[in-house]
């Protein structure tokens, strides 16, 4: 009976952990922030006033010129684009965004549009940004609010020429929790507490029984 209570407590604990795990899963969506590419001497820029604590994703869309140059170059490895992000305090984060496309199998056709597939960070302004190096696009959390500017540097754009078709900034939005999620969280906490109490009580009771049996054996 005591062992049954102990294992029952463990089972309830496991159920509580499952409930909490499910309830911790968040639904994320990316909300695009309308930006306009501004051309300055030697770079193409987008600027936006970002909010402290929010997470953002920056994606770069290839132009027709980029696609044509990729096709003509016959590149089989990802090609880099140098990007700099300027923080409100004038700090700078430097990175390379790598693009790859599928070359045509038939002569005379164009490749697919080169897509940003991974990012390599050089220097990071850690006072202003917390970057996610595992994300395929440029993803970061703003540590301070203010105006941020992302720049594509023309001088080092060796495999193609001209601006990208678009530079898109997204804001990550966490969907609001619903009643079902809150119920799972509360149930998980209750199960963890109940399971722990039953398991401990069952284990102690079993220990007391074993001690009594040992004393009887000695007699």
Description of the molecule:
The chain has 219 residues and is α+β, with helices and mostly antiparallel strands. The chain folds into two domains: 2-22 and 178-218; 28-174, Jelly Rolls (Sandwich), CATH 2.60.120. It contains three helices and eleven strands; from the N terminus they run αββββαβββββββα. It has helices spanning 2-24, 64-73, 179-218, and strands spanning 28-33, 38-40, 43-50, 55-61, 79-86, 92-100, 115-121, 129-131, 138-142, 146-153, 166-174. The strands form two sheets. The protein has a six-stranded antiparallel sheet with strand order 2-3-10-5-6-7, with no helix packed on it. Strand 8 (129-131) and strand 9 form a beta hairpin. Helix 1 (2-24) runs antiparallel to helix 3. The chain is extended, with a radius of gyration of 28 Å. The two termini are 25 Å apart. The mean pLDDT is 82.
Which geometry do the CA atoms define?
A: extended
Helix and strand composition category: alpha+beta
Number of domains: 2
- Main sheet: strand order: 2-3-10-5-6-7
Order of helices and strands: HEEEEHEEEEEEEH
> Which runs of at least 5 residues are low in confidence (pLDDT < 50)?
none
Mean of residue pLDDT values: 82
CATH fold-level label of the largest domain: Jelly Rolls
Oligomer: single chain
Major sheet description: 6 strands, antiparallel
N- to C-terminal separation?
25 Å
């Amino acid at each position: 009976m005591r062992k049954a209570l102990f294992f029952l407590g463990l089972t309830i604990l496991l159920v509580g952990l499952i409930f909490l795990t499910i309830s911790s899963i968040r639904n994320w969506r990316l909300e695009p922030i309308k930006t306009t590419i501004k051309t300055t001497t030697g770079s193409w820029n987008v600027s936006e006033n970002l909010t402290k604590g929010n997470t953002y994703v920056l994606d770069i869309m290839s132009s027709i010129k980029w696609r044509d140059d990729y096709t003509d170059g016959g590149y089989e490895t990802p090609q880099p684009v140098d990007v700099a992000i300027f923080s409100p305090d004038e700090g700078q984060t430097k990175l390379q965004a790598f693009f790859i496309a599928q070359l045509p199998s038939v002569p005379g056709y164009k490749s697919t549009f080169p897509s940003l597939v991974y990012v390599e960070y050089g220097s990071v302004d850690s006072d202003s940004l917390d970057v996610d190096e595992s994300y395929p696009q440029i993803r970061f959390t703003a540590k301070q609010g203010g105006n941020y500017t992302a720049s594509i540097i023309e001088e080092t754009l060796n495999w193609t020429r001209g601006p990208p078709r678009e530079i898109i900034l997204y804001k990550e939005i966490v969907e609001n929790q619903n009643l079902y999620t809150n119920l799972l969280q509360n149930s998980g906490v209750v199960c963890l507490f109940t399971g722990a109490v039953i398991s401990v009580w069952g284990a102690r009771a079993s220990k007391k029984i074993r001690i009594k049996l040992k004393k009887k054996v000695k007699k």
